[in-house]
Write a structure and sequence with these properties.
Structural class: alpha/beta
Shape: elongated
Helix content: 55-70%
């Protein structure tokens, strides 16, 4: 027999390639298992080629490491066949481990088929030598090599299946598994090589027309490592892209949930808001109809809440509201709903069988609201007025039920508060007026009944006209010109305040543009924002769209928010104000002095103007405390480099007193009453100075 030997360097290279091929196989198993559709088929095909080529390369490098005292070569066709066998076995392995489950029977069958495939690849590759007269095989070593191939295949399949998912520590486990699989594959190959004997006088027939091995080792190593490396790099990049896509998808999903939560729930208490309440009410009516039950709609208003809010500040008021909401939530049955409409108004929907159940629940509501609430060491006490309307006894639609419950609640307030009342037909007149106004307000939004009046603002030591404040009026077809206090509370409670606010922004921008085109100057106009409108997440976008639509510079618009609104949610307030001021819109804090501001928060706010509440101006000449408050506000505004405007100036004495204190921004009936756009345009034409 010819005595053969091995090139140690190539043996080490074959082991390294086996480990790299094993790691690639484990990685590709994960890619196939976590993909679907066309992507899974692409990873299966690419992974089978990379893995199969890796296993074949290890075998081929191992054969190139074998040295005989005769020239050696390899038949090209048989060599290619051995590659195809390796790729086919790899494809089968990847497909097998990508299945959802790998039971023991399937694992054993797969190990046998894959092991036989690897053995077939090995011995086909050996046949590519075309040895003459032929290779003498040692049966024991040959069977041992097949057994090692089957065992190695079984271990590889089991490890690939267990490590196919991504997770913490998976990389380290795959490295150790790759080393073990590499040793198994190398062990099979060299066991098979030990089974081959070469008689004296043998020669390699493939040297005549086959591929000589002189330069093959380096080429196979380089090509194999390159292909496996590319496969791993593509896999890693795809995994990172997939992770980023998953992260983005998760972020978008969370953002969608947050937006949905914000759109349908009250931000302070987390209770359903008006929009969700309407949906829940319609559903509750359908359920009550199907079950032939009653539905109780309870309108709950807190008595004395404004005193708490004004006396201790909105933060204390907010904590009181949250505590009341928590208590009322504990009274709910499984299908009941508690919603907050805004301010201190709640609505409770309860599925009942008899009116007595509604009475018992309303009594519990009144008792829970009336229990003292401890906030910052203080015991705060409010009471509750509850109005109740029943379906189907009082009405068959949620709007009418809400209106009836609202009317009953106001009867409770008129009769001393801290109690509950069921709706009665005698309350119908109030309900009808409420509903008629509500229906009319909806028509007004769709028609041309809403108008803006503009009240002039004066400023500077010369007392010149500086701009105006836009004030909403409703030109009712039968009731005449209605001031905002007749319909704004109704709009806030019915959810129409947002479209009303949008109309005001749109109309103001249109009017500013009209005055500019008429050559009447570049004036600033202020708009009052409700708390609901200011906290709407799309407010900056709507303002920007209106300015762009009418080609009005942002500096021509001032948005006024009350001090209480500004302090309600300081982080959200700061974010909204920062966005608006970045656009160039001016911000004014209205009714300053009536809320509860922290000087630090006020300093952080990007406001340009403070407006002194008319309540302090009214008794400025006779009330020393009011005069001291006004002087302090003016000094504070000047210290923070803010413009200060006093509202409600109705007498010459008030005007003179304010100017003596250094407040030159003035607004009130003494100086000019709100007027329609045409009448205000006459003022712009002459730019009247402050009345003497």
């Amino acid at each position: 027999m010819l005595i053969g030997g091995y090139n140690g360097f190539l043996v080490l290279c074959s082991f390294a390639v086996a480990v790299l091929a094993s790691f690639t196989a484990l990685d590709m198993a994960g890619r196939v298992a976590t993909s679907s559709g066309g992507a899974a088929r692409a990873w299966l095909a690419g992974g089978a080629c990379a893995m199969g080529l890796g296993i074949w390369s290890m075998h081929f490098i191992g054969m190139l490491a074998f040295e005989l005292p005769i020239p050696l070569g390899y038949d090209l066709a048989l060599t290619l066949y051995s590659i195809l066998i390796s790729v086919g076995a790899s494809a089968f392995a990847l497909w097998l481990v990508s299945r959802p489950q790998l039971p023991r029977r399937r694992l054993l069958a797969g190990a046998l088929l894959m092991g036989l495939g690897i053995a077939a690849m090995h011995y086909t590759g050996m046949a590519a030598l075309r040895m003459q007269p032929g290779i003498v095989w040692h049966r024991g070593w040959l069977l041992a090599s097949v057994a090692v191939a089957v065992l190695a295949a079984g271990a590889a399949l089991w490890l690939a299946f267990r490590l196919r998912t991504e997770g913490r520590g998976r990389f380290g486990h795959r490295v150790l598994a790759s080393l073990a699989m590499g040793l198994a594959i190398v062990g099979m190959h060299y066991t098979g090589m030990a089974a081959a004997g070469f008689p004296e006088g043998s020669f390699c027939g493939a040297t005549l027309h086959g591929v000589r091995q002189d330069w093959l080792a380096l080429v196979v190593i380089v090509v194999t490592v390159a292909i496996l490396g590319i496969a791993l790099i593509v896999s890693v990049l795809d995994r990172r892209l997939e992770q980023r896509t998953a992260t983005l998808s998760s972020s978008l999903s969370r953002a969608h949930e947050d937006l949905l939560q914000a759109a349908l729930h009250d931000p302070l208490t987390g209770l359903p808001n008006r929009i969700l309440l309407r949906d829940r009410a319609a559903w509750a009516i359908e359920r009550a109809t199907a079950r032939r039950h009653r539905l109780a709609v309870m309108f709950v208003d807190l008595d004395g809440f404004k005193a708490v809010n004004d006396g201790y500040g909105h933060q204390t008021g907010d904590r009181l509201l949250c505590e009341v909401a928590s208590r009322l939530r504990q009274l709910l049955g499984g299908s009941d709903t508690l919603a907050r409409l805004g301010g201190d108004e709640f609505v409770l929907l309860a599925d009942i069988e008899e009116p007595e159940e509604a009475a018992r629940l309303a009594a519990q509501v009144v008792a829970e609201v009336g229990r003292g609430v401890h906030v910052d060491g203080r015991e705060l006490t409010v009471s509750g007025s509850v109005g109740i309307a029943l379906y189907p006894d009082d009405a068959g639609h949620e709007d009418m039920l809400m209106a009836h419950a609202d009317a009953a609640m106001y009867v409770v307030k008129d009769q001393g508060r801290n109690g509950y009342r069921f709706f009665e037909p005698t309350m119908q007149a109030s309900t009808d007026e409420h509903l008629e106004l509500l229906a009319g307000l909806r028509r007004a939004l769709a028609g041309d009944e809403l108008v803006l009046h503009y009240q002039p603002k004066f400023g500077g030591e010369g007392g010149m006209l500086t701009g105006a404040e836009a004030l909403l009026r409703w030109q009712h077809p039968t009731l005449g010109l209605l001031p905002p206090d007749r319909f704004i509370p109704l709009a806030e409670r019915s959810g129409l305040i947002l479209p009303l606010g949008e109309w005001v922004i749109e109309e103001t921008c249109r009017q500013i543009r009209g005055w500019r085109e008429a050559g009447l100057g570049q004036w600033n106009v202020a708009i009052n924002l409700s708390a609901v409108q200011f906290l709407s997440p799309d407010l900056p976008a709507r303002v920007a769209a209106a300015l762009a639509r009418h080609d009005v510079p942002a500096a021509a618009l001032t948005l006024e928010i009350t001090e209480s609104t500004a302090m309600k949610d300081t982080e959200a307030t700061m974010a909204a104000l920062a966005t608006l001021t970045a656009m160039g819109v001016r911000i004014a804090i209205d009714d300053f002095g009536t809320g509860y501001s922290s000087l630090l928060q006020l300093k952080r706010m990007p406001a340009a103007e403070l407006k002194i509440d008319r309540g302090f101006v009214r008794e400025l000449e006779t009330n020393g405390e009011d005069a001291a408050i006004v002087a302090s506000i003016i000094a504070l505004g000047h210290a923070l480099k803010l413009d200060v405007v006093a509202e409600g100036v109705e007498t010459a004495g008030q005007r003179d007193h304010l100017r003596a204190l250094g407040c030159f921004g003035l607004q009130g009936f003494l100086l000019g009453r709100p007027a329609p756009a045409g009448a205000f345009a006459d003022l712009l034409r002459v730019q009247v100075p402050l009345p003497a």
